[in-house]
Specification:
alpha+beta; about 120 residues; 4-stranded antiparallel beta sheet; 3 helices; single chain
Length: about 120
Amino acid sequence: MKKVKITVLKTTLDQELAAQYGREGLTACPMMQAGQVFYADYAKPDGFCDEAWKAIYQYAFALAHGAGQDVFYYGDWIRQPGVAICSCNDGLRPVIFKLEATEETSTLSYTPIVRKEDTES
């Protein structure tokens, strides 16, 4: 499994929808900033928004496991293999992310628990 580089490309605010549905003074997402970089594989990176992770984790997981030219609409609207451009699910103020496959091998950040019944035959 490889690490996936996640870059915050842009934070947005849909002014029209925010005026109609949002609370007074709503701004673009305060949790993420354009230019932030995170690295992920199977787990949400520290400091990454939980809701944004739910929206993009399947792309990170696929890239971490070697998905390439045959996915993420490469050649359709994405021109670079091993890249996904996606956003969080916030309809008023979505954050846009670029996910890129890397060659850096991922390592577990914890020790797996082996249950006794799993080792008995």
